Structures are given as C-alpha cells and as structure tokens.
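User: Just a sanity check before I run the rest of the batch. Below are the structure tokens for the first item. I only need the designed sequence back.
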C-alpha cells in the first residue's frame, strides 16, 4: 500500500479515535497517527541501502520498479519473498507492545503499527502477494545464517 494511503487511513482512524475517546491525549493521538505510516521507514531504508541514494524520490522509484518486477514474477508463477522489512515483523510488534506495558506512549505506537500492518495485510492479500512478505524476524535470521 502506498504511503499516501497509509497517511490518509491513519488520519481517518485518528479522527475516529478522537471522536470515540475524546479524552485521549494529543501526544498519544500524534504517536498513533505518526506510527501508522512511519513504520514504512524500513521500506525507505531498504531502497537507500540497495541503491546507495538517500533521496525519497529515489526510494519511490525503487519501489515502483520493484512493483513491476513483482507483477511480472507473479504472472510467471514465480513465488519468492520480497525485500525484508524488520519493522513489519511480528517480533518487532511484540517488542513495541512489551514496551507499551512500561510506557503508555509505546502502546499507542504499537496500535498505530498494528493498524498499519492490518491495512498492509488486507492490501497484499487482495493482490494475492501474501507469500512475498516475511512476517517473522527469526525466520529471516535463520535463512540469513544458513546462507
Ligand atoms: Zn507497510
């Protein structure tokens, strides 16, 4: 899902939270909203590392090309994993949730990440690309070590 959609959906859900729970602090609302799209920083970091360019436009271009390759591979029946995105793993979500038990701010970051990940899941399931994502950090690490 494109960042602009994550920002839009994050904003809508932040407004809904504000309406349902009007006493929620502005800080928590802001953390929820920001984490609902900044979790995609790992996509940017991937693009920056693979292309050795820091520009945001470059990262968008990288993912646009990657998307076209994905589509081609999918058509040919090739089912392989895509880039690894550590912030999108179950383990990272659990870590932030655990921190949320210590500091409430992290709980709202977790909720924003969870919301983002659910939107991602719906989107990639709809496209039929679920196999491309590595959901577990440990799986990725195990494969990395084996190589
Ligand atoms: Zn994402």
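Assistant: Here's the designed sequence for the first item:
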């Amino acid at each position: 899902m494109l960042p602009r959609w994550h920002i839009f959906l994050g904003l809508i859900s932040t407004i809904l939270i504000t309406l349902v729970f009007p006493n929620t602090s502005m800080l928590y609302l802001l953390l929820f909203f920001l984490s609902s799209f900044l979790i995609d920083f790992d996509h940017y970091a991937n693009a920056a590392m693979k292309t050795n360019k820091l520009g945001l436009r470059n990262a968008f271009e990288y993912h646009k090309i990657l998307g076209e390759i994905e589509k081609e591979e999918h058509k040919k029946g090739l089912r392989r994993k895509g880039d690894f995105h550590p912030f999108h793993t179950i383990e990272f979500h659990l870590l932030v949730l655990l921190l949320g038990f210590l500091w409430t701010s992290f709980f709202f970051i977790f909720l924003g990440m969870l919301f983002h990940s659910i939107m991602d899941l719906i989107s990639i399931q709809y496209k039929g690309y679920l196999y491309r994502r590595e959901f577990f950090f440990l799986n990725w690490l195990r494969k990395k070590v084996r190589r």
